[in-house]
Amino acid sequence: SLIFSDIGRDTNANTLYDFLTLNTGLAINESGNYTVLGWLANSTSGIITQAQNNSLLPQGSSNLGLSFNGKDIYKSKYNGPYNLLFLRLYDDLGNLIDSVEMIYNTSNYNYSQFEKPNAFFTNIFTDNGQDTNFDLLYDLLNINALINVTTSGTYSIEAHLSGNGTIIGDINIITILPTVLNNISLNFSGEKIFLSNINGPY
Length: 202
Prior knowledge:
The protein is mainly beta. The protein is 7% helix and 59% strand. The chain is built from 2 helices and 12 strands, in the order E-E-E-E-E-H-E-E-E-E-E-E-E-H. It has helices at residues 70-76, 190-196; strands at residues 4-9, 19-28, 32-41, 47-57, 60-69, 83-91, 96-105, 119-130, 140-149, 153-163, 166-177, 181-189. The chain has a 4-stranded antiparallel β-sheet. Strands 1-2-5 form a 3-stranded antiparallel β-sheet. Strands 8-9-12 form a 3-stranded antiparallel β-sheet. It is elongated.
């Protein structure tokens, strides 16, 4: 039977887990190169992230670790225990050797124990209409997003405005963000909204 264990690993000594590593025992009938793929899910079976390990394994019993990205776990905003939803074993030709499902629940973790992404939305949004030419009609619909930046750098932000399932406008901006809370304004064309003939909310 499969034997599992799990551990959070902090690789940069900042007290946050960079990886959640799940270790499993494998029984290998023939030595060779193998690939193990695993999918980590929350308590409702929603997939959070996946990991793989490519290794040369000897015949017999082997222990192998799958390291799931801590930033993906943080972004999910789900606390553990997490579920190893799928585990699949492939040979070096890509043939599926074995597959098991919903086989292991991790220890309890809080998502805040894991490494934060370089930048992430705080889920705080506001919006306002802006009349730039004083004709009492909105020229822009501004949607303001609060972004927490943990590593300063150049970022690309993409947004789509939709109504009734129809895309009304698209925005893609590239900007330099410092290591603070950043308020980013996404300015959608009022003319495009008018021409869409779609009323809000958007």
